[in-house]
Give the backbone structure.
Amino acid sequence: MKKIFLLAAIATLAFTTSCDKEALNTTPTTAVSGDFMLENTEGGLMALNGTYRFFWQWGSTTTSNYHQSFGPQSYALMGDLMGEDMVQAASGNGWFWYDYTYNVKSRYTSGGWRSYDCWNYYYKLIANVNYIIAAEETMVGSEADVKYIMGNAYALRAYAYHYLAMTFARSYIGHEDRLCVPLFTEPTVAGTEGKPRSTNREVYAQAMADINHACELLSQGQAQKHITHIDRFVANGIKARIALTMGDYQTAYDAAKIAISGSKKLTKVVNAGYNNASATDVLWGAEIITAQGTTNPQFLAHMDIAFGGYGKASRKCCSAWLYNKISDTDARKVWWNYETLEDGKTKGYQQYKFLFADVSDPTTGADHIFMRVPEMYLTIAECALRLGRESEAQNVLNEFMTYRQPGYNCSSKTGTALGTLTTNETGSLLEEIILQRRIELWGEYGRIYDIKRLRQGFERTSSMGHPTAGLRQDLHFSDPETFDWVLTIPSAEIDANPLMVQNPLGSAAEGNYGDDPSLNPAQ
Amino acid sequence: MKKFLLLTLSVMMGFTALFAQQKVTGTVTSSEDGAPMPYVTVVVTGTSVTTQTDLDGKYAINVPAGSNVISFTFVGMQTVTAELNGRAIVDITMYPDAIALDDVIVVAYGTAKKSSFTGSAATVKSEKISKRTVSNVTKAIEGLVAGVITTSGSGQPGEGASLRIRGYGSINASSSPLYVVDGIPFDGNISSINPNDIENMTVLKDASASALYGARGANGVVMITTKRGSDGKANVSFKGQVGWQSRSLKRYDMVNQKEFVELTYEALKNKYYTQGGYSMDEAKSLAASDMGKTMGGELYNPYKNYSWNSVIDPATGLLMDDAVSAWDEDWMNELTNQKALRQEYLVNVTGGNEQTKYALSLGYLKDQGVLITTLFSRYSARVNVDHNVTKWLSIGLNSSYAFTNSNSSQYSGTQTGNAWYTAQFMAPIYPVYEKNLDGTDVLDENGKRLYDYGMNGRPKASRFNVIGDLYDNEYRTSRDNAGVRTYLMLGGDNEAMGALRGLSFTINFGADLVNRNISSYYNPYHGDGTSTEGSIAKYNTRTFSYTLNQILKYDRRFEKHHVLAQAGHEYYNYGYSYLYAERTKVYPGITELAPAVNVTDNNSYLEAYHIESYFGRLAYDFDDKYYLEGTWRTDGSSRFYKDNRWGQFWSVGASWRISAENFMKNASWINNMSLRASYGSLGNDALDSYYAWQSFYDLTWPNATNPGALVSSLENKNVTWEKKKSWNFGLDALLFNRVLNLSVEHYRSTTDDMLLSFPMPMSTGFTGYNANVGSMTNNGIEMTATVNWLNKKNFRASSTVMFYKNWNKVVKLTDDNTITSGVRVIKVGMPIYTYYITKCAGVDPATGRQLYWAYEKDEEGERIEGSDYITSNETQATNSKYYLDSRDPKFQGSFGSDFQMGPVDFSFLTTFSYGGHIYESLYQSSMEATYGGDTWNKNILRRWQKPGDVTDVPAVMIGSGRLTNVDKWLVDASYFAIKSIQLGYTLPARWTKKANIGALRVFLMGDNIAMFSHLNGMDTQYDFTGGTSWSYAPVRTFSCGIDINF
């Protein structure tokens, strides 16, 4: 009897162990299936917000060197450091130093440097918005919300292709039919194959088409749901940037006009540290709340000397040449000054433009800023001039400068002549507009993108304050045709994409032009 | 038994011959332990003359005239016959009977006799494990099992080594073997197992052996069996061991202070001359004036009688003759614990009777690392009990608990805080301790030296002092490890079962629980914590897995026939939970969250993984001569989509004991010989994701207060099991009167549907997706030979040599023929991880520039043979990569010996590997300095210096921008290592008996004693793909200890 009880008990134990079919269906707790995320506008907004978080989240695009990769604002700083107006006084911990000293192109085999970082960043952004765009017809929700989400997505794609082109190809003007980057507009699936590089003309056409579509979708007056989002005004700001790069000055002019037609206005406040995305003149930025804030791996940590760390170990300074161009009555002169070092010596033109709101708590008061109203004024001025409307250009610049320098008047300047080098001054009005642009957008736009678009060369000298390592007299900064500022394509792309053509590693192409479409294996 | 022998003895005495013509004497010893054998029956063949050996194994017998042969018999031992040929003294060694000799080995879901086993397995017994001083048993396997390769493993105390059995099982899925502890797959931490608790480790190498672990058996299985009790008197033993540790890997040969300063000057000069377009004289003066800035100011100038800009003689480029250095401090020495102590104590009690057997062990280990502040300690307890309740019901419980605590460094790779990186490449001019401008030490109010955190301009690792930070920061991991293995068995091979004899039903349940707490603290004053005024993070993870199976078994012997049938069901459940919280602005010195001010991060998540399985086995053998076995298993894994979830795995095997055949009877030099063959199919589902097929939006991307999600993976519903089919052929032989024990095996395996994150162009927004992409083969041979070349009573010696070789080849890739990743390539027709890299062609003697090989390509983009040319154009060079060797060695092996001379025993083990290359990125970074203040390897002294110099090292520069991925950094991976040496002395029994001690042995041992390789400093066994990293150097231990059996 006992035996039977025991056997029964054991048999029960043995067979109560689950053969439950559901037990083998497991799902994670940090993610949800891609299938239903984009079914409705609620999910669509989540996907959109994820991409905006990606606009300032550090360390998600490289396999090392995370502290210099925090989205667009790091690429703006990179772009400035590649020009002549910003001096990086020392290598410090090495962050941005390799951008500054033009020592990144040969590092394309590594997952830790700019080639990989920038390529990965923009294409990840594109892949994410391509999914959203693909759901345009099926997304459930109010029409206004669907249009809002799609408008944002198209604008982001335009933004990404524009910056990819400015980073990995030579200037649009003069190289319209040279190789740019591959175009992807469909959602990626497992097994999506690599594509050959399209030409500048094709890539910019796509960016233009996308931004036009975005402007249309956002033209219904939908309010910005969050400061990071793109509304009608920001979309037009992006459009103005693209058109300006292409030399399509009328389009740029019109778009910039719309961009400043909203509630964001010029302000005379220039000493608030540029750390607040809600400031009067900020069109587009990222609000970073304390819980999502960080310490070292962010823009201001690299800039603010009072924070210690990177900003102190490798001071970001204004070139003496540019500093000396700034009128003493210009309110912006406070953005730079002598820094007194510990040994009592002084160092020229340490920046004070970008500062933490509270240097003792870097997790807050450190918003990212992507676009400000002054950029649009300067674009309008430049385009008006290019379109032959010289007095309008003078007026726009004068109007803007009333917020900066009392009594400023550029009415005596005319013409669009620019020097071969940025230091070969012509005294033209265009040069003056660009000069104000260089001063106003220092540290936030990416000077090299303008140098490329203006088809100028530049020089760095010790007297400007550049350390010897930054002089790089062996390179060809003076030649607008150079490949020095055309980034190499990461080997991870080349390895997986037989259709990819690498840019020349050196300053100039030897034997061929590197971006010649005839090199394209697809041809 | 003894009673029976005594009885026999007394009866035999009566027949002792009274007349004799020749007296023969001698000693009989056992081959197993060399001990004298009492009560052995000695008979003069063909007569009734007989005697027995006495308690010391001695005998004396009178051999009648005309007789020339005497024989020795003993239960369980082979009968020995000896021809006298006039000898008066005949010493004999007796060997266990062939069948009795047969080891019982642990196999999947049971045990098997070694001779009946059709698969391939190797057992490492506790005696071998105890010869290594290891805190983690995975480090004891190297060199003991043919076909198993291991990494050296981190020197961090408690860390283990990685194992690969018979080549690479997989590309992206795990290639690690499955660990099974006491019959149940183990998910705990191997470091929680006290190596002294291990009775044996069996490595299952082929399909026949591991197919019953189908789902997870493809990479082989390591079966760990802990010590269990046995019949008889309780046995109490104590072991104590104390050792001292140092690094076993030589250091890299780096330049000295003088050389460094001269090289920096030269590097600056070269930069101006070759890149800056200056004349040589201008370059010299610019370099001199740059010295101070590059080095970090006069504070860091050790030559106080010169300033930086005058310390180099411009005429010679050398340091001024009369420059006197104020300090020469060595960072690596400073961070090494010169007295790292390792202590281990163990108490073991075993015993039992026919009904109940038990084993209990308690252990304590405290293992200090050679990196200051690092530590591993373990408190372990284990109880094994087996009990026969009735003749048809037995139960058992095996439970263990271990508390481990480790202090380590939280840094790795090129993080500035990583002591192994920063100290290795810190230029020799930088002092560890803060200096005054005159070169003297800065002292605090107590007269103690202060660490230099580089706050005053040191260009390298400013804010950090990796030595000070080791003291001021904390990274502590503590684990509670609990394990339970329990069974309940009904029935068995027992007469009480009547007609059901041989039938049994068993329920096994095993679970492993690991609670892990990590505490990470960065001090607010220096290093990474400065920007946040310190930070403190706590991680709490819990891993819980259990396996429950039910097995029905029929195991019965009928005369010469033996039949075994087994069927079972199993469910495996793995769960992992993670909780994390971080705050900044700490209260200095308190390593808890409570007093820290800012809550900065917190997170939690769960992972789940389940497998459901059914399996069976059929085996038959006849007359201990012919053996057949077949197994089958099906697994459903939660890692795959439901349509592709179930995998079928199986094996067949046969073995033939050829020496038992009549036609072999005449070959008396063959003591035993068997042939084995097996074939089978295995599976592997171990992708790094538990949710491999699914596409996901990662929800951890909120944008301020708005929830946000980013795409994180691509869907591939087709992703399914990686399958491995393998053949195994084996020959085992015991030859020449048991002097030579030989085992030779050959295997051929093919892995199909290899799991891989298939690379996608980054422009698609993804770097890859999980897919089954191709096939590869691993073929190999393994040879183990043991020579028992001396087997005398007080002098025994044996040597074992192992050779093994694996040929790996990728045979198929879908879509494309090549998958390139970094400097390695996966290409059809070549070994996996073949190097694909730019080839250097020396240095241009005129300019000191690096030259490369380049070639023309055909329309397919392939190299045109013979079109190679030398160029300095880097674009062409990077487009002309060459397929060069891989990490795979040409052969590997080990050699070891054991000696016993009276009370003294001695043993050693060495390992070797020949061929293959390592891509030495550490060497690379010390030959191509990236930053001012990075030091150089001594080989830089071969550099090009002036036109006409012929060398392979180009002009020295800082941040030269030269191509980094070139074949110059491929270093021959061959090595020879002395793994262990042990010397023991067993006190004479007459002394220990008085103290009531069964046996007492004292020993000295050395572990990881020396490593000889092609480049000092290189860790040839850092990983399996031929990489290196800035990691904790492997450790050498010298220790002494005592073993007491009461």
